[in-house]
Design brief:
By secondary structure, the protein is an alpha/beta fold. The protein folds into 2 domains: about 280 residues, Aminopeptidase; about 110 residues, Alpha-Beta Plaits (2-Layer Sandwich), CATH 3.30.70.
Length: about 400
């Protein structure tokens, strides 16, 4: 692997990558149906000699680059969907779609992967194996990766033996790479609870069964569940983000509703916490003679990086960028990712690329003022290319860590 050549090639297509990213950013689309984004990606991939197919249940794009010689397959992934939120960046290419914004960097992810496809296609003659480009809708809560797997993404005669994805972050210096072995991101499940009491006049609570203090007690009990039943080094987060009850000051309502999220970094703790949330809610309600309906909606599983592959990615990044630009992350983050579905089936790693602005505040992902330092996109392109080339150079598809 020639690091300077890869970085130079990535920088040479940076302007085109930025233009693609800005076009996608200007026209964000939500969920599993992204026809305009899919069309932009297909146009950008046209002429590269890839075997391209699109999804049936979602507007996904799967493109295979087959090398000149046989060998393993590596999957490279980018997500394409935006978030249902307004944009407040005042950029000249800001979202033109009311209530939608690329505030999580998926526009950058997509543009970087298309750039990597261009550079890898130039090297087809030297490749021993294949590169499978996965461009997916529906990462923001719609299980797009799972849909693509169900449609055969990982099947066929040459299934991927490794998988790699990048996600932008505002942390670290722009262009830095970070990853860790093992759990990298949390599971994300939803809790919906309805406490059913008996309404009446607020001046006579003894004639009623007030669901509001019961709901509040349930919220407090969840925090005790976490601090007293969950191992501190295998953590969980239970957050009730919405409480809804009542209509006015002098009426005790019949019901109180709780809505929240549950995050864990191991599947064993996930199951314990899900069971515990149900048990606590039902137990607190029963203690007060109230009824409760508990609905636990399973979201993305824990995102677990393969230990060997994570080491391989970090080693590749050091060779490409130098050790000062590479960080071994000390702990998982409690956000979630549906690349977790791929990593359940294929050894691989998701890494973070810092796109922190050079000046001014660095707003986090999901902020309406989130900005991307576009100069760092060249690093992302180069990382995709370097990981793919080193993986295929090994021949067996088994990463070796220096």
């Amino acid at each position: 692997m020639n690091a300077s050549e890869i970085l130079g090639d990535a920088k040479s297509i940076l302007d085109d990558t930025i233009q693609l990213r800005r076009g996608i950013h200007r026209h964000p689309e939500l969920g599993l149906t992204l026809p305009r984004t899919q069309a932009a990606v297909l146009e950008a991939l046209d002429g590269l000699g890839l075997d391209v197919r699109t999804g049936q249940r979602t507007t996904s794009v799967v493109a295979r680059l087959t090398g000149a010689r046989p060998g393993p397959t590596i999957l490279l992934r980018a997500d394409m969907d935006a978030l249902p939120m307004p944009e407040e960046t005042n950029l000249p290419f800001a979202s033109e779609v009311s209530g939608a914004m690329h505030a999580c960097g998926h526009d950058a992810h997509t543009a970087m992967l298309v750039g990597a496809a261009r550079l890898l296609a130039r090297r087809r003659g030297s490749l021993a194996g294949s590169v499978l480009f996965m461009l997916q809708p529906g990462e923001e809560g719609y299980h797009g990766a799972r849909v693509m797997i169900e449609e055969g993404l990982l099947d066929g005669t040459a299934p991927p033996k490794g998988a790699f994805a990048l996600h932008v972050t505002h942390r670290m210096t722009a262009g830095a790479i970070a990853a860790r072995p093992g759990p990298a991101m949390a599971s994300a499940d939803t809790l919906q609870i309805v406490v059913r009491g008996r309404g009446g006049h607020a001046s006579a609570p003894h004639d009623c069964l007030d669901p509001i203090p019961i709901a509040c007690e349930i919220v407090q009990a969840f925090q005790t569940l976490v601090t007293r039943r969950v191992h501190v080094f295998d953590p969980a987060v239970v957050t009730v983000a919405k409480i809804e009850a009542g209509t006015t000051r002098n009426v005790i309502p019949d019901t109180a509703t709780l809505l929240g999220t549950i995050r864990t970094v191991s599947e064993a703790t996930r199951e314990r916490v899900l069971d515990g949330v149900r048990r606590v809610a039902e137990g607190v309600a029963a203690a007060h003679g109230a009824e409760v309906a508990v609905e636990l909606i399973r979201g993305y599983p824990v995102t677990v990086n393969d230990a060997d592959f994570a080491g391989f990615v970090l080693d590749t990044a050091r060779e490409l960028l130098g050790p000062e630009a590479v960080h071994a992350t000390s702990h998982p983050i409690m956000a979630s990712e549906d690349f977790s579905y791929v990593l359940q089936r294929v050894p691989g790693t998701i890494a973070n690329l810092s796109t922190r602005p050079e000046a001014g505040p660095a707003f986090p992902n999901h902020s309406p003022r989130m900005l991307v330092n576009e100069s760092a996109l060249a690093t992302g392109i180069a990382m995709h290319v370097a990981v793919a080339l080193r993986f295929l150079e090994k021949g067996t598809g088994a990463p070796a860590v220096a």
